[in-house]
Design goal:
By secondary structure, this protein is mainly alpha-helical. 77% of the residues lie in helices and 0% in strands. It has 21 helices and no strands. It is globular. Residues 515-526 have a biased composition (Polar residues).
């Protein structure tokens, strides 16, 4: 499966042009954001709520740019992928939970890819047997990576890069040609949140940010760590430019789809498969458009399948500690995705596949708050990133992005538990819209609550390196503080000794002055002169008086 590892060769710079070093991996990663499920989510949001969620969709897109950029920086600076660092910095139970979140995100991407391509085949060829279409789609999408494995890494990498770029450019240009007069109404772009659009808001979050792409992106660029350190700055700029370019095209696609759906109809209670098909026919008016759409779905499905194999390998080896061959990583997720898609197609038909495509981004959005914490924590660690840790301004943006994902999940959970909206009643089985239930209400509540609880738990658990760094700082501060305390103690002792010495000197001086004044008094008495400044004791004064009287009497007698 050398063709699967072609992304590593692109990042290593073996392509004929240096732009492949950064643009190639970014284009391949961005293909995970192009599938029919994500387009249907955008169409339904615009069809039901108009432009109410456009600004929030832009914020989600900017958050995705930030997360992908930080993931690539982690791989380039540390020379390790995000899963490896999580294995070193977190305990094994936390790594297993993070692996479950990323693994389920991979599985939902596979399901969305197979179900979306099957729906595309059904729309183009108008084939009624949905199960046959699903089987055919699964075989076609899964055989493409094996076909490219006949090529070497260099040729496969270049081919997949050209394929990804062609897919993205064709879809963007196709939409622009179909809707040359797409307007931007600034008066209705301010977000209007309600319990009714919480479902669509969560689905848009999962449409614009994908969990497992963090691990995949950091993995494919980690080979660039061997480049000289002086070129890391230029690599950062090149990666940032590539990510902004790719995700700007993705946002443009989503905005055109949402605005087109908003112009057709607004404030509908629900949308079904046939209504979505009619809406897409009104958007893609060109007769060739369905065929081009199918080709785009097949190409993007192939690249999604290839990147999912890489991501599954990285996640299972580092977060679960299980090393499997690439063949197993290719087969196991595809089999599970095929079984899920066939089951819903058999039980609920086309409407079941449609609801499955809507539910996949919703599930991915539930895993986001906990999954972005390692990205932001590692990027802000000075011990891991060194002088390339993100700046204070980027830390503020990362914190705002985290709050955006967390509050979106909290609003969704509150609406599930206490709300009475149309989609909540549908999940509870009390609605009258006739939409099939893809995931039971209890499962949605359990996943949502467990995700938020794990997010809060992970938020208060720092990295191991951060704890070690804090202990080292304390170990450095403690001797310094002890030295300062000893210095203060010695200084205080010195001052006390100086004071005591001064007191002894003062007492000695007083005694000396005292003795000197006595001698002076006696000498003064002998000469009949009394010093007025001397203050002798009373006894001495009396003796001196007597002596003076006797001496005076003797003089008189003589």
């Amino acid at each position: 499966m050398d063709g699967v590892r072609c992304v590593d060769s692109l990042a290593a710079g073996v392509a004929p042009h240096n732009s492949f070093r950064t643009l190639g991996p970014t284009l391949l990663i961005s293909m995970a954001y192009l599938d029919l499920g994500k387009w249907l989510v955008t169409l339904e949001s615009g069809y039901r709520f108009g432009y109410d969620l456009v600004l929030l969709m832009l914020c989600f897109n900017l958050s995705a740019i930030l997360c992908q950029y930080l993931s690539s920086c982690i791989g380039m600076v540390t020379g390790k992928n995000l899963a490896e660092i999580c294995r070193q910095e977190y305990s094994r139970p936390i790594c297993i939970v993070l692996g479950l979140l990323a693994g389920l995100s991979l599985l939902t991407s596979e399901v969305s890819m197979i179900a979306g391509t099957a729906v595309g085949f059904k729309l183009v060829f108008e084939y009624d047997d949905l199960l046959t279409v699903v089987w055919f789609t699964s075989v076609v999408v899964n055989l493409l990576p094996y076909t490219l494995s006949l090529l070497d890494k260099r040729m496969a990498g270049m081919f997949n890069t050209y394929l990804a770029g062609f897919t993205l450019v064709c879809f963007v240009l196709g939409l622009l040609v179909s809707h040359p007069k797409t307007s931007v109404d600034m008066n209705v772009m301010f977000p209007k949140l309600s319990g009714e659009n919480a479902y669509s808001l969560m689905a848009l979050l999962g449409t614009n940010i994908i969990v497992h792409s963090f691990y995949t992106h950091s993995s494919v660029v980690q080979v660039q760590r061997r480049f000289p350190v002086l070129t890391l700055g230029s690599l950062f700029h090149d990666h940032f430019f590539s990510i902004v370019l790719s995700f700007s095209g993705i946002f443009l696609v989503n905005y055109i789809l949402l605005s087109s759906a908003a112009d057709e109809s607004k404030n509908a209670m629900a949308i079904h498969f046939q209504e979505a098909v009619q809406l897409m026919n009104e958007i893609f008016t060109n007769p060739v458009a369905p065929i081009v759409l199918l080709v785009i779905l097949v190409f993007s499905g192939h690249i999604i399948s290839m990147t999912c194999i890489i991501g599954n390998d990285v996640i299972s080896e580092n977060l679960f500690g299980v090393k499997l061959p690439l063949f197993a990583h290719h087969i196991l997720p595809k089999v599970l995705a095929m079984m899920t898609t066939i089951y819903h197609a058999k039980v609920a038909g086309s409407d079941g596949l449609y609801q499955l495509l809507i539910m996949c981004p919703l599930i991915q959005a539930m895993f986001l708050p906990a999954s972005v914490i390692p990205v932001f924590r590692v990027s802000s660690s000075r011990l891991l990133m060194g002088r390339y840790k993100m700046s204070t301004y980027v830390e503020i943006l990362a914190f705002l992005a985290f709050l955006l994902t967390l509050f979106t999940n909290i609003i969704f959970m509150a609406e599930i538990l206490f709300g009475d909206s149309t989609w909540t009643n549908d999940l509870k089985g009390k609605g009258n819209t006739g939409r099939p239930i893809v995931l039971p209400y209890a499962a949605v509540v359990l996943i949502s609550c467990a995700s938020i609880v794990f997010t809060l738990f992970l938020a208060v658990n720092p990295l191991k390196s951060a704890c070690i760094e804090a202990e080292e700082l304390l170990s450095l501060v403690h001797p310094q503080r002890k030295t300062l305390d000893n210095a203060h103690h010695n200084q205080a002792a010195s001052l006390e000794h100086s004071k005591t010495t001064s007191e002894h000197i003062g007492h000695s001086k007083s005694a000396f002055e005292h003795n000197g004044s006595s001698d002076t008094t006696i000498q003064s008495t002998d000469h009949m002169v009394i010093n007025p400044e001397a203050q002798p004791s009373p006894s001495i004064y009396r003796e001196e008086t007597k002596t003076a009287v006797v001496d005076t009497a003797s003089v008189k007698s003589l």
